[in-house]
Structures are given as C-alpha cells and as structure tokens.
Amino acid sequence: MYLVVFKDIPAQRKYLESHGIITIILADEKLKPFNNDSYSNKLYTFLYNLNSLELCTNLSDIEIINLIYSRVKSLQSLNAILAEQITRCFTNCGLMYIDDNGPKALLRFYDTEVTSSDNNIELRGFYKKFVSLLNDDEKVEKYKSHLQKLFFIFKKASIYGVILNDKRDRALLTTEILPNDSLIKIDKEINFNYYENITPIRSNIIDKSRQYNCFQLNKLDEAYSIIEEELSEEIRQKDYANILISLFNQNVILHSLKYGFSSDRDNYSTLEENKIHELYDDLPRNIKKTVSVIYDLVT
Fold first, then answer.
1. Where in the sequence is the domain holding 39, given as residue range(s)?
2. Number of structural domains the chain divides into
3. What is the mean pLDDT of residues 198-204?
4. Which partner from 12, 21, 178, 251 sits 20 to 30 angstroms from 193, CA to CA?
C-alpha cells in the first residue's frame, strides 16, 4: 500500500512503514503547466510520470518501437511532413545536416547534451534504448517490419536516417529500413478537371479533393456539407492534424457563404466560425506538440 504526500514528516513515515505502508513524497516539479503553483505542478508531474510508459525499465523491444512510433503516429495521415514536426513530437532531439548528393537531415536523439529546453533525463534514457536497438543489426533485421511504419513517416519528413553514436559518424538510413518500392503516394495527382471527383464514395480514408473541387466549382454549400461529414469521421478517428485543416477550410468557405454574392447567404448568417485556438488549447499536451506546426499554418 502507498500513501502520496507533499511533505516528508519522518515520524509519520516511519509509523506508516511499520504498518506496511510506503510513503511517496512528491518533490519532482520538472513539468510546470501551472506556472508558479508548486502544488499543482508536483501533482501533474507525478500523474504524468505514472502514465509515461517510457519510464518503465522492463520494456520489450517491440514495446520500445511502438512507443517511439506512437509519438509521431498522428502525422501518418499527412502527405507531407516538416522535419521540425518530428522533433517537436519527440522532444529531446535535433537535426544534423550532412552533404550526400545534396543536403540531408539526420535525426539525433540527445543524450548528455545540455540545451536551453528539453532536458528530460528519463526520456533521453528511453531514447538511448531505442538507439541501442538500432545499433544491433540482428534486431533491426528481426523487427524491420515494425520499424518500417516509423521510418516511412521519417521519409515523408525527408529525414535521411537516425544517428547511432555520440561521434555522429554512424547512422541507420531510412533506405536501409524501407523497401525500394515504398514510394510516398499523394492522395490525388494534380488534376484541373474538378468535375471528376465531387460524388461521395464510402471509405474510411478522408479524400479532401471532394471539398476542394466543389470549392473550385463555386459549389460552396456542397463543399461546406462535405467538410461537416469529414469532420465527423476525423473526430471519430482522432485525426487531430486533419481536424485542424478541416476547421480552417470550413472557416474559409463559411466566410464566402456569409459575405459573398450567394443566394444562400442568409442560411449561414447566424453561424459562427470555428474557434480553432480554443480547440487547440483543449488538446492534450502531447497532441499539441504533434500538431503545433499545422496549428501555426491555420491560424
């Protein structure tokens, strides 16, 4: 049995120990979402650490790979990703650029480096386990199918590979993990025939070309309705990156419907624009880091 307290009272602690109760003293205040509220910061840090599987010491290799992947998983639905989005998702890492038939970006997980922010010792220890796994040729070959989904996201972000040592002279390249035919497929090739794709198709994959084509054909009412449908599916899938994009697109179309020369303008006059900043503020901290670049683009 455990008792969580904020202040150590030796006499009380020893008394509880004699009855088999272990006292946990909350002193760690590394995370400070509540600014100067020490009490709330300590409690938040404690609860956050409880929910952080990265702090476990007995994780299997598959669990390590899956946890690394989970940090960037929400980016998988995007056709193109900025390398900075990857580093924001992971934290405690950076990019190193080399010249190999042109500039190439390598992902480097921090170990002992001191930075102005992102100095999470526990998280760096977890990343060290992942890098150690990548250093083992047998394990890389054994878990290649599990690593491919992660490195495919790296490829979308034009990340050339992952640095494997402190000397920064070895790296596991993305091309070593992905099959030769793993091409990045854009949802739709550039096509100026907007009439081709405005009819709905039953699918779990969101196709934003429908709303775009309707917008180009000035079918704003239809485009607005399509986004409504897509938003419902994106919310169900918890696809936060595309939710932000859809909300932005809907605001653009709503503005045209309300203030343009449309016969339907009265039907939309009382509707308010989506408050994207409020949605973003309500997102969990880890999701915010993942979609922060998208948020910057749509606000």
1. 2-50
2. 3
3. 47
4. 251
Instruction: Tell me: do 130 and 211 sit in the same domain.
Output: no
The closest alpha carbon to 25, from 9, 41, 7, belongs to 7
- How would you class 209 by CB atoms within 10 Å of its CB: exposed for 0-12, middle for 13-18, buried for 19 or more? middle
Tell me which of 152, 177, 202 is where a domain ends.
177
Residue with tokens 């697109």: 249
- Taking phi over 0 as left and psi of -120 to 50 as alpha, with beta for the rest, 158 belongs to left
Q: Which backbone phi and psi does 54 adopt, to 5 degrees?
A: -60, -20
The rounded distance, in Å, linking the Cα atoms of 168 and 107 is 11
182 within some domain: no
Per-residue pLDDT for 103 more than 90? no
pLDDT tops 50 at residue 202: no
Q: 183 lies in a domain? A: no
pLDDT digits (tens, 9 = 90+) for 233-251: 988 888 888 899 889 888 8
pLDDT score of 61 more than 90: yes
Top pLDDT among 263 and 258 is at 258
State the pairing for strand pair 171-173/2-5: unpaired
Say how far apart CA 257 and CA 223 lie, in whole Å: 11
pLDDT at 198: 46
Would the pTM count as exceeding 0.85?
no
Element housing 146 (H / E): helix 144-156
Burial of 257 (0-12, 13-18, 19+ CB in 10 A): buried
Report the distance separating Cα 24 and Cα 21, nearest Å: 10
71 with 167, same domain? yes
